[in-house]
């Protein structure tokens, strides 16, 4: 008997076959006439300038770090969620189990929230906002019409 | 032995059928995307290839196969090829655990589950494969050796991991209700109209928003936002490899629609299920169920397109704020609310009252802070 994960292998094999056939078929059919212009890096028609490994915002790293933290905590929540509503456990403990599990999770989520709040207060979740320049343009719509929207966002 | 080999062949046929349906739906989504866009913008849309242009996906496929494909000199050749393949693979693998239907009786008294695999880690499999999807984009974007591709890839990765957290937490609320990770069990618990959407209105909303972000669809399509980044992570791609990236996006849309139907809308459940089973036989009822699931998934695909032509694109800081400071706290609230509703026993009442209370709190908070700001300005 093929186990369930054997069928997963079947899935993977089918998917890989599809990718190979599609790419291989395209490789057979398409023309191949490369030249220097075609093979150069595309930068809106200009000659490529400098190194492609540009510097990017440091916040991307911080987001990645925060993600690892929260994802690990999430993995701990999965087994808890599956036993939380377990009827046998609730019956055997006269309903105490539910409250016990819930209060346990309160502590856990509380710590999680504390971590999020810390990152939030520290300003790690704030991204640079575009600064809007004033212009002399006189619109027929009064500026006060936009006031609520501008204050909100 | 006889039954086992029949089962194996039936399963193999089913897997090929799942791939065929997924790819077919994805191909025709590209056509319907353009038709829906045309309808919403009061245009005609594609109408040249065949009647009403229904052969358009075929024409597109031929074009994908016949176009010249070049790999930039500065790129990392093997990773450049691996990127789109990985994207495509992960998109195709997710459908393995979606239960497309109930048991189907085949000859010789054997029955086959209309599901790739019914493993006890079902929804965790979806979660894991979706996370792997980031690699396809990141590898492709990095290997292109192009500034725009790199920035697009980093944006995509950052956005996907941020929204994955809220998504995982909304799934946890579902797990608390069903007590199992298996997608089959989750669907069976929802039969006869006990759909999870009735108990999880907030969870569904969070999941829907996260699905948009995970599929890189408007309003969260910053990784490929053409006004800033040319084509985003697939700037340097052409021919079939570009096709893989675009195709993977449409497959993801369909599969996330199917997953949403599974988690929140009863999967293959439909009205009059038992009546059909009684009068026309189990197999007919099962097949109608398969149709119901695909119909629900297609409805969500339409919602994806509808939103694309309704909402403008977010700014990056708005995107990150929504993910980290709104969706994650909301998802945490949802987990706690679900916990209370299960313990109290009044599932539906508590969850809806909780949502109503939350809405009231938000409105009150908003009006209070708005007045404060106004005073501060004056």
TrEMBL record, chain A:
GO terms for molecular function: NADH dehydrogenase (quinone) (non-electrogenic) activity; NADH dehydrogenase (ubiquinone) activity; quinone binding. It is found in: Cell membrane; Membrane. It is an enzyme of class 7 (translocase). The keyword Transport applies. Its EC number is 7.1.1.-. It catalyses: a quinone + NADH + 5 H(+)(in) = a quinol + NAD(+) + 4 H(+)(out). Keywords: Cell membrane, Membrane, NAD, Quinone, Translocase, Transmembrane, Transmembrane helix, Transport. GO terms for cellular component: NADH dehydrogenase complex; plasma membrane. NDH-1 is composed of 14 different subunits. Subunits NuoA, H, J, K, L, M, N constitute the membrane sector of the complex. HAMAP family: NDH1_NuoA (MF_01394). Belongs to the complex I subunit 3 family. This is NADH-quinone oxidoreductase subunit A.
UniProtKB/TrEMBL annotation, chain B:
It is an enzyme of class 7 (translocase). Coiled coil: none annotated. Keywords: Cell membrane, Membrane, NAD, Quinone, Translocase, Transmembrane, Transmembrane helix, Ubiquinone. The gene is nuoH. NDH-1 is composed of 14 different subunits. Subunits NuoA, H, J, K, L, M, N constitute the membrane sector of the complex. The chain crosses the membrane at residues 7-29, 78-101, 121-143, 163-181, 242-265, 285-307, 319-337, 343-365. Belongs to the complex I subunit 1 family. This is NADH-quinone oxidoreductase subunit H. One of its GO terms (cellular component) is plasma membrane. GO terms for biological process: aerobic respiration.
